[in-house]
Amino acid sequence: MSSHSDDLPDRVLSMHEQAVREMEEPKDGSTATPVAFLLMCFFFTAWGGYYIADNPGNWSGQEYNERPAHTAFSGPPAPTDPMLLGKEVFSACTQCHQLDGKGVAGTYPPLVGSEYVTGDERRLAAILMNGINGPLVVNGNTYSSEMPNWRSYFKDEELAAVMTYVRNTWGNNAAPVSKEIVAKVRAELAANSTTWTAETLAAFTKGESK
Ligand code: HEC
């Protein structure tokens, strides 16, 4: 009995010898990170970078709003089309010169085919700046009414636009008028707002031609 129990440790050891021999040696220290995991990290980092670069959203918090405030970022507004602005301003003229620009026989002269409209732009600007009165021959007919001046009603840009509009509507075809020309004529006539007659207008046009 006693001998049997005495050799118990030996027997236990020999019983496990085989298992101990076949078990892997325990390792010390750290294991290298698996390459597959590194590749995965690299892939997701690269994908994230690519995604951000591809969808930068203007680097702005506004970009994906439901109603983006694009006006704040879209630069200066598009310049107004002078023909559109001119048509708007022209509503101040239709009462006399009519929508079709033909005027009213014997009272209001036509703008269609008028040398005053399609000719010298400086003279046209002067007419609108001071108004005109008295006998005036337009397309062979003499008119003798008065047109008020428009200098205080419209800005340079608006007068330039209505001039461009009447010069290029109803078959009229003449160069557009810049607001710089209107500004120049306005400055020239700053101290002279006397309504033109055919004679004073002719003198102004000749006297200081361009
Ligand atoms: C209240 C009526 C009236 C209005 C409004 C009016 N005009 Fe006139 N316009 C006249 C009259 C009348 C004459 C001719 C004046 C004369 O007999 O000396 C004239 C002459 C002219 C002329 C030179 C003659 C010709 O027919 O080419 C031009 C150009 C002209 N107007 C453009 C305009 C423009 C552009 C507007 C609008 C901004 C305008 N007028 C608004 C009454 C008007």
Work out the helix count. Answer: 10
Sequence of secondary-structure elements = HHHHHHHEEEEHHH
Low-confidence stretches: none
Residue-averaged pLDDT:
88
Please describe what this structure looks like.
- A hairpin with a 2-residue loop joins β2 and β3 (141-143).
- The protein is mainly alpha-helical and 210 residues long.
- The strands form 2 sheets. It has a two-stranded antiparallel sheet with strand order 1-4. A two-stranded antiparallel sheet has the order 2-3.
- The termini are far apart.
- The chain has helices at 2-6, 8-22, 35-54, 82-90, 94-97, 115-118, 121-130, 156-167, 179-188, 198-207; strands spanning 132-133, 136-138, 141-143, 146-147.
- It folds into 2 domains: 33-77, no CATH class; 82-207, Orthogonal Bundle (Cytochrome Bc1 Complex, Chain D, domain 2), CATH 1.10.760.10.
- The chain contains 10 helices and 4 strands, in the order αααααααββββααα.
- Heme C (HEC) binds at residues 92-93, 95-97, 108-111, 114, 116-117, 124, 127-128, 132-134, 136, 138, 143-147, 150, 162, 166.
- The site of heme C has 28 residues, from α5, α6, α7, β1 and β2.
